[in-house]
Amino acid sequence: MQGLRDALEQSQKDGVAIGHFNVGDWVLLKAVSAAGQELKVPVVVGVSEGEREFFGLAEIAALVRRLREECDCPIFLNADHTHSLAKAVEAVRAGFDAIVFDLSALPFEQNVRQTKEAVEALKAINPDVLVEGEIGDIGTGSEIHEEAPDLSRGLTSPAEAKQFVDSTAVDILAPAVGNMHGMLKSMVQGQTRKRLDIQRIAEIKSAARVPLTLHGGSGTDDEDLRKAIAAGINIIHINTELRVAWRRGLEEGLAQQPHEVVPYKILPFAVESVKNVARSRLSLFNGDK
Ligand code: G3H
Ligand code: ZN
Questions:
Q1: Distance of CA 74 to the CA centre of its chain
Q2: How sure is the predictor about 72, in pLDDT bands with cuts at 50, 70 and 90?
Q3: 191: pLDDT strictly greater than 80
Q4: Report field, pTM of the whole predicted structure over 0.90
Q5: What residue's CA is closest to ligand 1, atom 8?
Q6: Ligand 1 lined by 182 (C-beta under 6 Å)
Q7: CA of 80 to the centre of ligand 2 (A)
């Protein structure tokens, strides 16, 4: 099976993006992997520090390895939003394919210095691991927020992107281009959508010349996502949309069987609900496949 680096190169040639979906339990993992297999496209499974803690680091690594062998399909594992070198080292040692090393909350120079050190340390353990760095401010929390934070001053400039990539040697860059973590209530209800700065993405891509990740994909306007891919986005992160689908599916399973207590009769509703969202996002990212 090809590695994540090859899959990224292929996606760039094909003008598509790889879907990255966060999973915090087996329901989400089962749904995401099934959606990828149905459409026969690569998927990246992401686990943040909190999701890793709940799932278990070795447990999620073993499950993804097993799924990969079983289906012989491109399913990759990413240590999402890792805020310390110690946690990143743990994930590389556990066999993760990629690490999002996220020090974007620090001043730029500190972020550059520590990310560079992390790239060197992580590649010394596994030269094939891909390291993503983050700059700019896109807010925190894949949750439903009461109001939108003002992120306008934390947008990434093409010059910063180039300086960061050249100084740190990250494999992948996550910029701030109008994206935001989490969703507003109005987005969950489908009344508003996130909009992206497409021109900025294109300029960052031509300055930085590395694969780009779009974080905070949930609730983003479909046409903006298509344009963002054409402008140079290679990976798109979706989390909150899956969490909303997980909850709705669970509620449906419980509502339809008010006296049921058997998990394997209730949880398939959640799997189906999450799978539908993951499949529809994957379809869009892969040229409306
Ligand atoms: O790393 C995770 C993501 O960036 C997800 O953001 O919850 O807005 O989809 P989201
Ligand atoms: Zn993110």
A1: 15
A2: confident
A3: yes
A4: yes
A5: 216
A6: yes
A7: 7
